[in-house]
């Protein structure tokens, strides 16, 4: 079977009924910055950081609180870091609840949620995990 010719991740799309709150969270907590966005007929934002875009999309039919507890087995986005200490410090400064664990593969992880309940993972990953090598 031939794989699709995927070149990489372009963007993550996150729905919210509070686009301003979500936008501010991703700017303040994760360091993304706004980029130009087309004039859609709904509110939202396009953010850029670390070579990834996040598209904040207003959907008034989505109730805030997609999840009410941190769940590492739920849909989530994951970002790589070399050290968790700055992450802990920033989350503590902002009063953001998080949980830490080392998974079965030995990867240290921090999990927390954005204001809408989207799960976020921050992990210390090996550069080339053996299970991803061709």
Fold blueprint:
Elements: E1 11-16, H1 19-28, E2 33-35, E3 44-49, E4 52-58, E5 76-80, H2 85-94, E6 98-102, E7 108-113, E8 119-123
Parallel strand pairs: 1-4, 5-8
Antiparallel strand pairs: 2-3, 3-4, 6-7, 7-8
Notes on the structure:
The structure is a single chain. The protein is α/β, with parallel strands linked by helices and 134 residues long. It is built from two helices and eight strands; from the N terminus they run E-H-E-E-E-E-H-E-E-E. The protein has helices spanning 19-28, 85-94; strands at 11-16, 33-35, 44-49, 52-58, 76-80, 98-102, 108-113, 119-123. The longest helix is centred in the first third of the chain and has 10 residues, at 19-28. It starts with 10 loop residues before the first strand and ends in an 11-residue tail after the last strand.
Q: Helix-strand pattern, N to C?
A: EHEEEEHEEE
Helix count from the secondary structure assignment: 2
Q: Structural class from helices and strands?
A: alpha/beta
Strand order of the largest sheet: 1-4-3-2
Taking Cα atoms only, what radius of gyration do you get, to the nearest Å?
16 Å
Alpha carbon gap, first and last residue: 15 Å
Main sheet: strands, sense, barrel: 4 strands, mixed
The oligomerization state is: single chain
Shape from CA axes? globular
- Tell me what portion of residues adopts beta-strand conformation: 25-35%
Provide the residue-averaged pLDDT: 86
Count the E strands.
8
- The proportion of residues forming helix, as a percent range, comes to 10-25%
Q: Could you name the ranges where pLDDT drops below 50 across 5 or more consecutive residues?
A: none
């Amino acid at each position: 079977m031939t794989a699709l010719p995927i070149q990489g991740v372009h963007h993550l799309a996150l729905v919210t009924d509070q686009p301003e709150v979500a936008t501010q969270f991703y700017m303040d907590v994760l360091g993304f910055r706004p980029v130009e966005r087309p004039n859609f007929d709904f509110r939202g934002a396009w953010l850029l950081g670390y070579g990834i875009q996040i598209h904040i999309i207003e959907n008034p039919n989505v109730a805030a609180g997609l999840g009410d507890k941190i769940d590492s087995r739920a849909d989530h986005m994951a970002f790589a870091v070399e050290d968790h200490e700055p992450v802990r410090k920033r989350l503590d400064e902002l009063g953001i609840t998080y949980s830490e664990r080392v998974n079965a593969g030995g990867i240290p992880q921090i999990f927390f949620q954005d204001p809408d309940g989207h799960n976020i993972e921050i992990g210390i990953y090996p550069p080339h995990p053996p299970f991803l090598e061709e």
